[in-house]
Write a structure and sequence with these properties.
Length: about 650
Amino acid sequence: MEENKTQNYQPTDYAGKLAKAFIRNPLTAIILIVIIVVGYVSLEITPREENPQMVVSGSTIIIALPGATAKEVENVVVKPLERKMKEIKGVEHVYGMAMDSVAVINAVFFIGEKKEDSNLKIYDKIKQNMDMFPKGIVGPIIKPLDIDVDIPILSVAFYAKNKDLDERLIYDKVKEIQHRVNGIPNVAVTALKGGKRHQFNILVDLNKLSGYNISMGQIVKAVQALAYNAPNFKTKIENGEIAITSIKNAIETAKDVGDIIIAQYRGSVIYLRDVAEIKDSYNIQEFKSANITYKDEVGNFTPIQPQVTLTISKLQGTNAVVIADEVLEYLEEHKKEFEKQGIGFTVTRNDGERANEAVNELVKHLLISIVIIAIVLLFVLGWKEALIVTITVPAIFSITLFIAYLTGQTVNRITLFAFLLSLGLLVDAAIIVIENIHRNLTIKDNEHISMDEIMIKATDEIGPPTNIATFAIILTMVPMAFVGQMMGQFMAPIPANVPVALFASLVIAYIFTPYLATRWLKKHIHHSSEPDSPDDEETPVNFAPEPSIEENKEIINELHYEENYLPHQNDLSQNKNEFIPQFTNESLNQVQPTENNNVNFANSLSENEFIPQPTNENLNQVQPVENQNISFANSSSNNLNLTKNNDEV
């Protein structure tokens, strides 16, 4: 009856139900393979970064007030705008800077504020208060802060291998490269740092302007009529000269600039060359420069020389490794072309490579940790059990990586740290399941129960406590998700991935551990000589010598018991611990008569001899004889003599 109940065992917990549903399902092995493959693909296609993504909201407002001094800009633009920025909800800091003709205000929101909402708040606030600015302002220009765009992932320095190479030529060549790199997918912003940009410089002679009665405004308008971009000019006068810069496109040579007609004086045409000196030069208004030194073929550092740096930024949520590799691949394809022109380049910053190395290093240590766990389990549980537990770990990580990819996360140092942190917790469920399965396989009562029933029962038994323990650990990770500011965003991958991994460990342990154990493990075979416990040990049997056939027949003929003299077994036992022998046909053949017609069924238990057991059928054949005694002797108590006394024995 107990065996049938076990064979018809119905699981009560989700653990046993999952085990029962998948233990003989032909798709279980395919599902396991698909999970591991999907996890590997997710690891490859998920964007990689060295650090987690962080949302920093804020904007830079630029307002120009031509001709105003720094003090005037501070009073009429910077201070009023700072007060309005502080009125916006969520703004943490406001910084203002006043310069000649220009005001720059930075508004920074609390970390975690939505970027789009923050920029919209600033735009609305400025447009609502445009009437507070003085007349003649240019702008305002609002530039949102974007940590992904503002911080480049790749920097490439271009320099001249030939000392006679013009710096402006290098800049123009890098400008072409910049245009092509912008076409690479997921490239956000490219910028050039350093170098000398080609431009025409106009050095105006103020004395000649006064002689012809011409103003600077006339020169500016004349140049704007031909130039696509409005020229910038210095308001500061040095040695009676004003420098006008950034004239290009419609003007191709310095002679074209000098031929610009700016006015007429007494019927004569006045050209720009009449009042200014035009030079085909570089951006003299740029005071910043970038230099480089590198090792030559011998290994010595070259002299410091000018260089042009191309910086590349990526879009948010994209793979820094892929973008950096595509840019470098393009540069390698055109390397021979650069060498012909005497231009060399070197990579000065590559966050994609650093991110890839950091991720690969952590993946390596993660695999080492899995191997260490497998070795420990090998000595504790056995090699098959250790292999089953080890297989569940990649499956758990695969599910976690796939969920991270679907939710838009990236693989970074903190993400893999979360995996390392939870690694010791992930194998708990699988170890508990495989240990209980191993215990059930060694129980003697389960020898006649099918393997499937043992697996389902063993998994179902540990379901409730394992579930409670795992969910308790998950709850300890939840509060970390509510940590704010920069630390909260930096540590966000831990509460986002550890609970997912722990929940996946339960499902994987309940489905695949019984499935694999059914096929790889076997029941423990119990031999008849192997007791389940010391209390179950049997006393070795030692049979007495068998009497001859004539002696047995003589004994049976002399014994005449009637059926009503048969004593009840319970009546024979006056002591609960006293052994009452039972007769059988074979045992009666071993009865030997003693002197004075007494039949003695005596045996010494201390000598480990067999005591025959009587039965009702055999005793019915025994007829009592007057003055004859039958003695049932046992060494564990005094002899019990049965004699005829009317109806009592």
